[in-house]
Cytochrome bd-I ubiquinol oxidase subunit 1 apoprotein (Geodermatophilus aquaeductus), 518 residues
Amino acid sequence: MDVLDIARWQFGITTVYHFLMVPLTIGLGILVAVMHTQWVRTGKPEYLRMTRFWGRVYLVNFVLGVATGLVQEFQFGLAWSEYSRFVGDVFGSLLAMEALLAFFLESTFLGLWIFGWGRIPKKLHLAALWAAVIGSIVSAYFIIAANSWMQHPVGVTVGDDGRPQQVDFLAVLTNNTALAAFSHAIVAALMVAGALLVGIGLYQLRKRKLAGRPDTDVDHTVWRRSVRLGGFVSLAAFVLVAVTGDWQGKLMYQQQPLKMSSAEALCETEAPAPFSIFAWGKLGSNECDEVHSYTVPGLLSFLAHSDFSTAVPGVNELQEEYSEVYGATYPDDPSFGDRAGQPIDYTPVLAVTYWSFRLMIGMGAVSAGVAAYALWSTRRGRVPTSRIGVYGSLLAVGAPFVANATGWVFTEMGRQPFVVYPNPDVPVGEQVYFFTAQAVSPGVTAAEVWTSLISLGLLYGALAVVELFLLVRLVRRGVTTGDTSPTPPAVGGSRRDDDEDPRPGDDRADDDVLSFAY
């Protein structure tokens, strides 16, 4: 493997790992803020307990998300300096605003929320949480706007040095690709949070039921309302994911048709075009003519153009078209390294685009199915005790995480060999685009990138163990008696961890909602 391949693996692994934290932080932050709002509005103790328990989970994930996200900034300068130089005029403003405006808003007000229990007025304390959550959403928008510019560059002109120069910042912010991707990402984040509430809530309800705990106390209400909230949010988010995904897919057919045709393994142009249910053959070797599919006639034409008859271009035709417009071989330029003068394969890896697209949809459907099961099994006060159903729901917490990760893989791998994809709405001579082969840092060796990849892999593995340990510990402990009081703990107060739910008056109770933050 050369430097480019190793650097791509490194960025892909670290980014997918970080992206597992992002949707949970955004989605769970919104739901925790809703729980806190309900407590302030009604004063009911179950909402306070819900806020404090799920707040712990939210903060553990937030901390790990920040730690893993910092690596991305260093990779831009160390492994991808040519890419950073090319996009710097556009990304500089977006990433600066993300860090200075959104991230500082998020972290500052989150600190106020953590340490403000019982110390500042309730409504001001609630406002601090909402400010932090809004900050995380705004932060996500700036990042998505930057990524969407790479997918569909707008608001720029080509400078004398061949680099894009930003001339319309508003156009970059209101890029239709960014609006579609952002809306899709936010509702997908809510699916992740909803699945977590469902899985853990059902586990706790079953645990209490088998232990003979009463179904009339506050803790029972905490878990039942968590399950019901998570179920309704997951189902609603699934519908919205389908709507926003359809919008995003239609835009992709306009802006990156080869990506979408590859996702369907559609080799030849067809009218009407069928939607592939299952494909087999030589997907991995990109021999499109050797791929066979079970299909639904006309459905792909509808997904692409909202009718059942319009033609959809095939992979072979688009490969020839791209070769004519952007060149059949890489330029004979030292910046391309060993790839200079080599043929360009504009077709993404069919196996990756095809199956990641279906995993994204399939895992989303699994999550929606589990949400429907949770709502049905807890109707009219029922408590499910089926081991398969409850533990299956707990296992299915991972489904929307997989859907988010494979969606990202599809989006990024599908635009290869471009790291900045040409905008088809701009005349060819004025288009901004950049090949991935010329984006890697010229002075970095394969050994150096291998060293950083192995080091980061080991570090991320250790962080994963830490996060799973903390989350399992929190889930097994559940809510505590300290969650009934909004006042801060006494300095030096004792605390013991126990797998059992502490009883009122038990001195083993955890007095502080966010004690690990102190």
Observations:
- Strands lie at 156-158, 164-166, 275-281, 291-296, 418-420, 434-435.
- Residues 3-263+348-479 form one domain.
